[in-house]
Amino acid sequence: MIQHVAVEVRREQVDACVAFWALLAFERVEPPPTLRERAVWVEREHTQVHLMYADEPVVPPNAHVAVVVDDYERTFAALEEGGHAPEARREHWGSPRCFVLDPAGHRVEVMATPPTSSP
């Protein structure tokens, strides 16, 4: 199980990023006191995204975080309404999915169901 992923964001982008992740059912949680000056954390079902403060964030051009959501259609609509412009993609395993950028420019794949492993 992957426990967390860390992405770099400017301090002024944190509130917008927390609001974005809330659309994917992540809630802000407090990091340990020794890390509060370095990052903000959001969490869903024990999986976290650490929004690490950076003056010049690095946003990998092809890397992405993938998230399975409980209600894909509702989430897609909420992303659109929030001005995030999700882009529907081909259903490789028969599940709706899209790509969207968070306010810091990181790619996020949103899926109705995860792919299954081949036997």
Helix-strand pattern: EHEEEEHEEE
Estimate the global geometry from the Cα principal axes. globular
Q: Report the count of strand segments.
A: 8
Radius of gyration: 14 Å
Q: Determine the strand fraction and express it as a percent band.
A: 25-35%
Strand order of the largest sheet: 1-4-3-2
Count of helices? Answer: 2
What tags apply to this protein structure?
single chain, 119 residues, alpha/beta, four-stranded mixed beta sheet, 8 strands, 17% helix, 33% strand, globular
Structural notes for this entry:
With 119 residues, the protein is of the alpha/beta class. The chain has two helices and eight strands. The protein has helices at residues 14-23, 72-81; strands spanning 4-9, 27-29, 39-44, 47-53, 64-68, 87-88, 97-101, 107-111. The strands form two sheets. It has a four-stranded mixed beta sheet, with helices on one face. Strands 5-8-7-6 form a four-stranded mixed beta sheet, with helices on one face. The longest helix is centred in the N-terminal third of the chain and has 10 residues, at 14-23. 21% of the residues are buried. The mean pLDDT is 95.
Describe the secondary-structure layout.
Layout: E1 4-9, H1 14-23, E2 27-29, E3 39-44, E4 47-53, E5 64-68, H2 72-81, E6 87-88, E7 97-101, E8 107-111
Parallel strand pairs: 1-4, 5-8
Antiparallel strand pairs: 2-3, 3-4, 6-7, 7-8
What would a concise description of this structure say?
With 119 residues, the protein is α/β, with parallel strands linked by helices. The protein has helices at residues 14-23, 72-81, and strands spanning 4-9, 27-29, 39-44, 47-53, 64-68, 87-88, 97-101, 107-111. A four-stranded mixed beta sheet has the order 1-4-3-2, with helices on one face. A four-stranded mixed beta sheet has the order 5-8-7-6, covered by helices on one side.
